[in-house]
Write a structure and sequence with these properties.
Elements lengths: L1 E6 L6 H10 L4 H8 L6 E10 L2 E10 L7 E2 H9 L5 H21 L8 E2 L5 H16 L4 E4 L2 E2 L4 E4 L2 E4 L3 H6 L5 E2 L10 H10 L2 E2 L5 E10 L9 E9 L4 E12 L6 H11 L4 E8 L5 E9 L4 H11 L6 E9 L1 E9 L2 E10 L2 E7 L1 H11 L3 H16 L2 H5 L12
Parallel strand pairs: 1-6, 6-11, 7-10
Antiparallel strand pairs: 1-13, 2-3, 4-5, 8-9, 12-13, 14-16, 14-17, 15-16, 18-19, 19-20
Length: 407
Amino acid sequence: MKIAYFDCFSGASGDMILGALIDAGLSARRLREELKKLKIPINLKVKKVLKQGISATQVMVEGRSEKRSHRNLKEILRIVERSGVEPKVKEKSAEIFRRIASVEAKIHHTTMEEVHFHELGGFDSIVDIVGSVWGIGQLGIEKIHVSKVNVGTGFVKCEHGILPVPAPATLSLMEGKPIYSSGVERELFTPTGAGILTTLGSEFGSMPLIHVERIGYGAGRDNLPHPNLLRLIIGTSESTSGKERVVVIETNIDDMNPQFYDYLIEKLLAMEVLEVFITPILMKKSRPGHLLTIICPSEKLPLVTKFLLRETTTLGLRWHEEERAKADREILTRETKYGKIRFKLARWDGRVVNLSPEYEDCKRSALKKGVPLKEVFEEAKRVAITLQGNRRLVSKKIVNKRPKKPV
C-alpha cells in the first residue's frame, strides 16, 4: 500500500501542501492543465526556493482580475460542480469545503448556507483544495498519516477582526487530534491546510513504518527562525495486512458505582475506540476495584482522557503506545433457512482465517422464527463452511475495512 506522511513541524497551508506534492514528483504542467478545468482566471506560479538551506517548492496562486475574494458555500460548490475535474475530485473537494463551513457556522452562530468565506473564498483556496485532492490521487497515495501539528501562537488579522492563533476554525477542525506550539508568533496552520489534512488524513501522530520512495518540501511564504516547510514522505507500508500503532489507556477505579460501567462502555464505543474492557483487581487496603482499559488510535487520546476525567471518579490515568497486528476484515451477508445473517470475515495475507456469524443476527432470527438459538447457529456454521470452500472468496483482493457494529 502506498502511504504518505505529512510532517507538519512548521504547520501547513493549502499552497504548502501543493508545493510538497510537486516537490515529491507531481507534474506542475499537468496540474496547470487540470486546474484549467475549474474555468476560473488564475495563474499558478511554481518556483524553487531555499529555506534555511533546504531546497523546496513554493506555489503561489494569483487570481487574474478577481473582483472579490469572499463567497458563500453555495457559490464555491457551484464552481467546483460546474468544473471539468473528475467526479471523485469534485466529491472530496466539496466535502472539505463543507467541513470548513460547518465549523465556521458553529463558531459564528449561523448556518452553513449563510457562512461567507473571506480568506477561504478566493480562487486561491479553491485551487489549493481541488489541486491537492487531484494531486494526491495522481501520486497513487492510498492512505495519509499526519504528524502532530505546530500551529504557532499569537494573533492574526482577518476579515472578522483580530483572532487568536490557531484560528477558531483551525482549532475546531483539529478537535481530537494532536497539536502543539513551538512559540513562534505566526499563524503556521491555516483553516485550508487543516481542512485538507483532517479530511484526507486517516491517522494523526507518530510516523508510521514506511519504506521511503519520495520526499517533497513545500515552502511557506514567510522566513522564520526555523525552516518554514511542510515535509511530505511517500512510500510503501511494510504489509497490506495490518500492523498499526495504538494507544492503550488504563485507570484503576475502586470508588464508583459499578452500574455506571455500562454507560461508560457505550459512550466510549460511540467515540469509535477500538476496544474497551474491565478487569477485576485488588487495590490498597485489600479493596476490590476495576482496571478500565481502552485501546484507541493515538489521535483519540485527548478526547478519551477528557471523557474519563469528567465521567468517572478517577483522579488520573496512564497510557502507552503499542503496535498491534490486525487481520483485514469485512462483513458478508448470506441467506440461510432462518433468514439473512451477516458474517465477520477475516483474512491474513489474502487467506481466510476466520468466518463467524453475527450473534445479534442469529438471536433476532431465533426470536422471529421461534426456534432454539443453537439451531440458528448450527445453520450459520453450515453456511460458513460452504463459504470457506468458495475459491473466489479466498482469492478475493485484500481490503482493509473494520466491520460495522451490529444494528
